[in-house]
Amino acid sequence: MRTLFITAAAAALLSTSAMAFPLHSTQGTVEYFDLSTGALRLSDGINYTLPDNFQDPGLVDGAMVKLIWDAQGQQHMVQSLAIERL
């Protein structure tokens, strides 16, 4: 019985780690920002989606930012954002 529990726990751990997606880091210049829709586009043309609870730190077009994001389907979901230069 004890062996079965350890085997089941190991299988559960391996299955969840295989499903975890790595976070990505990107730096760039803000080309477009809309707080009401949670849309952010960097000068490389990639669109990002900001979380619902995003607190605007004073983003403006042209600001240099660093994003931590993860892919959820076709969307780039921002986990954190830091302004490097306004």
Can you describe this structure?
The chain is α+β, with helices and mostly antiparallel strands and 86 residues long. It has one domain (22-85): OB fold (Dihydrolipoamide Acetyltransferase, E2P) (Beta Barrel), CATH 2.40.50. The protein is 21% helix and 44% strand. It has one helix spanning 2-19; strands at residues 24-34, 39-42, 47-49, 64-72, 75-85. It has a 5-stranded antiparallel sheet, with no helix packed on it. A hairpin with a 4-residue loop joins strand 1 and strand 2 (39-42). Residues 1-18 have low confidence and may be disordered.
Supply the key terms.
5 strands, 5-stranded antiparallel sheet, alpha+beta, OB fold (Dihydrolipoamide Acetyltransferase, E2P), 86 residues
Compose a concise summary of this entry.
With 86 residues, this protein is an alpha+beta fold. Helix content is 21%, strand content 44%.
Q: What do we call the CATH topology?
A: OB fold (Dihydrolipoamide Acetyltransferase, E2P)
- Specify the biggest β-sheet: 5 strands, antiparallel
Number of helices: 1
| SSE series | HEEEEE
Structural class: alpha+beta
Secondary structure: elements and pairs:
Blueprint: H1 2-19, E1 24-34, E2 39-42, E3 47-49, E4 64-72, E5 75-85
Antiparallel strand pairs: 1-2, 1-4, 2-3, 4-5
